[in-house]
Amino acid sequence: MSNKKATPAKKPAKAKPKAATKKALSKNDVLVYVETEYGEIAPVSLELVSKGRELADTLGVNVTTVAVGKGVSKFAPQLFSYGADVLYAVDDKRLAFYETLPFAKSLCKVIKDTAPQVVLFGASPLGRDLAPRVASELKVGLTADCTELAIGPHEDPKTKKQYENIVYWIRPAFGGNIVATIVCPDHRPQMGTVREGVMKLATPDKKRKGTVVKVSVPFTGKDFVNKVIKRIVGKKKVNLAGANIIVSGGAGVGSKENFKYIHELAECIGGVVGSSRAAVDSGLIDHEHQVGQTGTTVRPKLYIACGISGAIQHRTGMENSAKIIAINTDPEAPIFKIAHYGIVGDLKEVLPMMIKAYKSKG
What we know:
Blueprint: E1 2-4, E2 30-34, E3 36-37, E4 40-41, H1 43-59, E5 63-69, H2 76-81, E6 86-91, H3 100-114, E7 118-122, H4 125-138, E8 142-146, E9 148-155, E10 162-173, E11 178-183, E12 190-194, E13 211-214, E14 245-249, H5 259-268, E15 272-275, H6 277-281, E16 302-306, H7 312-315, E17 323-328, E18 341-344, H8 347-361
Parallel strand pairs: 2-5, 2-7, 5-6, 6-13, 7-12, 8-12, 14-15, 14-16, 16-17, 17-18
Antiparallel strand pairs: 1-11, 3-4, 9-10, 10-11
Helix pairs in contact: 3-4, 5-8
């Protein structure tokens, strides 16, 4: 594994993807692990299938997916609509809920049998547990928490050996102070976890078809060492990743009392309340609202940043928003560099005026 700063090269001309064979055992494909639970596909998995389609078209290969669980074959039409060509389904009633050992064993079998060149996982709690175990078993590298992926050439700085069509795993490093591009040119598959919300979701095409391949894994009693006595599921209070409008407050809000302006504007325009890490660390709001490198990555249609200076750790998590409005008393605040519209002023004065203006049109 080597680490270098790089600007992703221009993508080669797209080659026509291979047609999925009936046995669907073509090699060198882009494989996406599909995270499922409670009858749904995790949003990050659909984002990765969408991005996987883009990478596969550049490489001229298929997008294959693998789902592990009970009744996972039913997800095939949805996965195909987002760009998958093949679904490897490890279907077993004992896999209704996630367990590390049998899930890792299932993934390793599929990867060893199909030899993909790229494997993508979501950087979810489940993905962060599963991916390192699979990488360790396969003795390959793993890049965590990526925010962008690209394909390009690579030259080993020592041997001058040239590589083509290498994955650039791009992610923040050193506390978010730099953006690093990591490559793993010598071992396959190239593996990484990718944050939710950073990859654009494709428009589904329900006419797309694909192939379902059922995979049998030789489990033993040692693979199921845990016994689940009771499962307690807590509902997520804040869905930042799925929000179309987010109104975020930073340390510049000043106090919990002042956060009422953030909440009121968000409620008024049908948005969700977000925050910077500085606001969370100051005790102004709970961590579940945090946007950024150590919070949630978002790409809403509208992001309103109030009292947020715009440190790179925060920008990493929201800079792909369709429209950004920044409100700050400091005209030199970094957030203004990425904002589409900027307001230099005190949020305690600006937000009430915005709320009043919006309500007057209602």
